[in-house]
Amino acid sequence: MDFLAGILMENVFPDITFGTYGKINTSLKAKQEILILGSSRAQHHYDPDVVSAETGMTCYNTGLGGYGLLYNYALFNELIKQHKPEVVILDLSPNVIIDPKTYMKLNIFMPYFFTYSSFNEIVHLDPDFSKFKTVFKINVYNSTFYDLFRGIVSNETADNGYKGLQAQLNTTTYIPKRLIPEGKFDSLKKEYFEKIIDLSIQREIRLLCVVSPTYEKFDADNRIIDEMESLVKSKGLDFYDYSDYWELYKKPQYFKDQLHLNDVGARAFSKLIAEEINNSHHE
């Protein structure tokens, strides 16, 4: 029974288009010339329509809220096995990099455990991972049924992965978030960051490592940002820190909250990034 149920889910699951799993499934099939990787700041900060209009290249945003470098590595490594993008933008978020829950959240990728070796690799980094979870194949799909049901009954159509935020930051209730002293860029995340960089170099894919705008810097002393920049530049690549970009910094009309641009800000920033892509293309 488990075997048959597992086979059924293996065939149905890739067609889910709703929710988190729908986003991952669509991202795994992306064939565009420009791909955006990152967490929620990637998902909300880069409008592929704007990028495409400025560069003349197709673009898709794979950003997924709450999931940083480990997911970005797994997705990127699987994507390039079937498609070589011209440009990859890796949005780097210090708040996600220092997230202590990073490893506990990796079980969300269990449905990809048997199919994709890179997802199998990162799921094993979950401290609570135990092989008994995969004894029954149907178990790996336990968290997917809601997305599957919604995908069946909804009429959602494919989009470009971008989710624009419409609200504007309220300065009267605003309280800034700060990098805590114990927050760190641990060695394992650095290793996977380096793997992404090395894969791009090996496959001759232009990689832009970007810290996108904030209303007010989370990493005020650039402690995490400096570590990332040092690693990127050691590989001979450029690093783009827009965390305090003057045209947007502390201008509430461009932000939904401290760490996320709203749609107006995202469109302005997307145009700027498109210019960087065009400039790097001609270097």
What does this structure look like?
It is a single chain. This protein is of the alpha/beta class and 283 residues long. The chain has a single domain, classed as 3-Layer(aba) Sandwich (Rossmann fold). The chain has eleven helices and seven strands. The strands form two sheets. Strands 2-1-3-4-5 form a five-stranded parallel beta sheet, with helices on both faces. It has a two-stranded antiparallel ribbon with strand order 6-7. Helix 10 links the parallel strand 4 and strand 5. Helix 5 packs antiparallel against helix 7 and helix 5 runs parallel beside helix 9. The N and C termini lie far apart (58 Å). The N terminus is likely disordered.
Q: What is the fourth-level CATH superfamily? A: SGNH hydrolase
The gyration radius over C-alpha positions equals 19 Å
How many extended strands?
7
Spatial shape: globular
Which class do the helix and strand fractions yield?
A: alpha/beta
How far the N terminus sits from the C terminus, by CA atoms, comes to 58 Å
Helix content: 40-55%
> Quick one: biggest sheet?
5 strands, parallel
* CATH class division: Alpha Beta
Number of domains: 1
Question: Largest sheet, order of strands side by side?
Answer: 2-1-3-4-5
The CATH topology is Rossmann fold
Average of pLDDT: 88
Strand content: 5-15%
- The H-and-E topology, N to C, reads as HHEHHEHEHHHHEHEEEH
**CATH architectural name:** 3-Layer(aba) Sandwich
Number of helices: 11
User: Uncertain spans, ≥5 residues at pLDDT below 50?
Assistant: 1-8, 151-155
